[in-house]
Amino acid sequence: MKPLKTPVLLTCVLFSLLIFTKAKAAKHLPKADIVVALDGSGQYKSIQEAINAVPDNNTKRTVMLIKNGTYNTEKLIVPASKINLTILGESREKTVISYHLYDCKSEASGNKCPVESWALWKDNKELIRTSATLTVLANNFIAENLTISNTAGPVGQALALTLKGDKLIFTNCNILGYQDTILLGKDGMLNYFVGCLILGRTDYIYGGGIGYFQSCEIRSYGGGWVTAPSTPDTQFYGYVFNQCNFTYVDNSPRQGDDGRKIAIGRPWHNYPKVAILNSEMCEQMHPEGWPTTWNMTYAATSDKLHLYEYNNTGKGADMSFRAKWAGLRALSLEEAKSYSREAVLGDWPLALALKIPLQKNRK
User: For residue 217, how many other CB atoms are within 10 A of its CB?
Assistant: First the structure.
């Protein structure tokens, strides 16, 4: 047999590599019950249609794969009946769910703008209750490996997420906004974020729910407040940040933000509770941490506010100039044990079964 000529041989090799690469890519796509794809290669092009197709009150977990693309034409809701749903992006950076609704002074459109966008969703009262790109009412929801964004910019309240279900998990996600990025919207409900990037400027993690943030980047534009908690008096936990990285970013979409300090938060309602442990805090953090009581007259004097820090590093972690509030202090080693993932999330089997590795403490 004569040997193949070089051009023919090269063509065969390249063709084989192409087939192998495609097969490998297909092999690595996770198994899913439902596939959403803008190019028509899945069962649905619309994420909301796919959510609506999930069986109600299903005891088995439904996995929905969302292929790469920018999904920016729908304001999404996961109804309370769609329990045990996972939405899984093909790529954290390339699977993008976004919308642009924001709160405004327009009684004719329920104080939502743009008016033409509000008109598309106004008949669903729960969906339109906030400006969120994604509203989750169902329990045991998981989002993984994708980006969720509100692109309205610095125009007022413009949520990426409204969360009202219980035992919700966001892992390896980008959650992007400017004001009020994430609303933990129901007191006592558990929300677990791990390995996520959360971006905002004004009160961008807020509400009365319980949020545990593990190994996340909390990225701020200058001049604002990371948190605006409204923890009920009877609720032991509010927001816990463990082994997170609090960072600052230039080029804010709002003129005048760049170069200004970042506050840990400002109290909103009730008895705010925030604990930051084993985390890196950038030099742009406001030295007082909580520089304003924000019309909450008892914020500085009530020991029912629990604003705690423990074992943090970085120039912003210096507590020497923190606000002299009754409820603001460093935790002891023994007290810090009460803020472990297991302590906060309890016997929530789903979160613990994920076996997401924790970083070692810095000290």
Answer: 16
pLDDT tens digits, 178-206 = 999 999 999 999 999 999 999 999 999 99
Residue 127 CB coordination number (10 Å): 18
Q: Is 59 exposed, middle or buried (0-12, 13-18, 19+ CB in 10 A)?
A: exposed
Mean pLDDT of the chain: 92
Whether pTM exceeds 0.85: yes
Question: Do 29-147 and 181-353 fold alike per CATH?
Answer: yes
Average confidence (pLDDT) over 254-271: 97
> Are 216 and 195 spatial neighbours (Cβ–Cβ below 8 Å)?
yes
CATH number for the domain whose boundaries are 181-353: 2.160.20.10
* Short-list 51, 208, 27, CA closest to 124: 51
Q: Is it the case that residue 30 has pLDDT exceeding 90?
A: no
Calpha distance 265→226 (Å, rounded): 5
- 155 Cβ neighbours under 8 A, 6+ residues apart: 102, 104, 113
**CATH for the stretch 29-147:** 2.160.20.10
